């Protein structure tokens, strides 16, 4: 098999607390091949955004990578200094953030914001960067791009701002794009248009895409592979089709009941009784045990490791450890 473009190994992220460390991500392990689309799903607070921010080197204080590796195209990212990381971020790896307004600066024209990375990373002149910004705005479906390029974020609708974010993220033709709930704030028709656009560009550029969403219906249509996170860990990962047809981890089974067209057919995440664990609680066994209908005594004694159960499939659950 070809070497993956990105491989995250045993990534643990946490912060110091009263002489101890609270780990929010624990031994997160996954990889993505060139041109592959990997979806990340899981309830709110399970660590999806922190996984992306770790890859981008954007963990805010007091969070730190405690252990593990993030290897991108042959470079180990967790050891890079700010300057070296800046060369990769926004250039070879870019991200569409969950909150568009946190990454658009209200006091700069959208054209200048899209141009910045191209001037810094691609060595374009301001004039060339502006021309490419207009081209990118057109590409993401913004009408009258020659005029819009000179406008400020507040002059655009929510849907257009999201498109500007995509244009920014695509400015330097990244090898890897991380899209963190890129359409949650938008209405359904615009959501569909933006997803089509992302997929179109992904195919044309053979870009790798990490797609984070709560909407399993969307994911089932686009992802090659899915990893399911729970309480800061990867608990199951498999090709989309296999996971869709045969979810194995009890938590994944719960989530899957919600996919439109499945037995229960609800649109959003099925509400699994109980709540997600607090990262501050030291849990001895399986993090899902308090909510799992199959929990047995060994589930409360030690944590099930993420084990390979097939060619491209991994599960962290004692029901499958044989
Ligand atoms: N700076 C921080 N300091 C301490 N804890 C944090 C910090 N940022 C996030 N967390 C905690 O880390 C956990 C994971 O957060 P994260 O934002 O990755 O969740 P998520 O899966 O993206 O959720 P959502 O679906 O709501 O976006 C949460 O419990 C959150 O409260
Ligand atoms: S390890 Fe045990 S508690 Fe955890 S998901 Fe599997 S059966 Fe349920
Ligand atoms: Mg998030």
TrEMBL record:
Residue ranges of domain ABC transporter in the record: 6-256
Record's subcellular location: Cell membrane
NCBIfam families: oligo_HPY
Protein name: ABC transporter ATP-binding protein
Membrane topology, from the record: Peripheral membrane protein
Keyword entries, A-Z: ATP-binding, Cell membrane, Membrane, Nucleotide-binding, Transport
Recorded family membership: Belongs to the ABC transporter superfamily.
Domain of life: Bacteria
Pfam family, one: oligo_HPY
Gene Ontology MF annotations: ATP binding
